[in-house]
Specification:
By secondary structure, this protein is of the alpha/beta class. It contains five helices and three strands, in the order ααβαβαβα. The protein has helices at 2-8, 12-17, 47-53, 87-98, 138-148; strands spanning 30-33, 73-78, 103-108. The chain has a three-stranded parallel β-sheet, with helices on both faces. The radius of gyration is 16 Å and the shape is globular.
Length: 152
């Protein structure tokens, strides 16, 4: 949803099409954690689920809505995420690069989907796989990136 919004909300035509012209808020950047970018890139796996999420196929491919007006993105994912393939993050990263939008992308070697902060704060009780010291590095990395982008 956030990746799609980054394209829709920053494009004047799409803003009007989706009724965002009256919304005065603006985002400076986006942070994507194991995102679903393209409905044809491994999740969801069936058309019925896609239709339940939205029948508007313009929203099925967030990377195709990127323009030069899109905001910078910090993206991270794990290579072993079995729910949302890392291909999603790569598609979005490539689209941002093609439009010369700043992007920082981290693909951590291992970790389950849904790590959140990947530390004891968000670890599911009794499930040690939700604490991942390597993937937890995304938090200090994104804070450094915010400074680099002059957001913090």
């Amino acid at each position: 949803m956030v990746a799609t919004y980054n394209g829709i909300a920053t494009d004047p035509i799409h803003r009007a099409d989706y009724g965002l012209d009256d919304y005065r808020g603006h985002h400076a950047a986006i942070v994507l954690n194991y995102p679903v970018i393209d409905f044809d890139a491994g999740f969801p796996i069936d058309d019925a689920t896609k239709q339940q999420i939205t029948v508007d196929q313009t929203l099925w491919h967030a990377q195709k809505n990127i323009t030069a007006a899109a905001k910078p993105a910090f993206i991270w994912q794990t290579a072993t995420d079995v729910l949302v393939p890392a291909t999603n993050s790569l598609l979005y990263t490539l689209a941002l690069q093609q439009h010369k939008i700043p992007v920082e992308y981290h693909l951590f070697g291992a970790g389950v989907h849904g790590l959140s902060l990947a530390n004891h704060v968000t670890q599911t009780p009794g499930k040690p796989e939700y604490a991942n010291t390597v993937a937890a590095q995304w938090v200090p990395l994104v804070l450094d990136w915010f400074k680099l982008m002059a957001i913090l």
